[in-house]
Amino acid sequence: MELIAYFQEMWHLAMNRNAQGVFFWFSLYIFVVGVYSVIFQVRTRCWPFTYGDLAELSLGKFDVPAASSDRSYMTEALYHYNVSGVNYSGTRVSPWVIMLSYNLRFILKKQMSYVQYSGDGKVKVFYNPSNPKKSFLIIAGKVGIFITFLLSILPFVLFYCEYYVYRA
Question: For 43, which of 125, 130, 145, 157 is 20 to 30 Å away at the CA?
Answer without folding.
Answer: 157
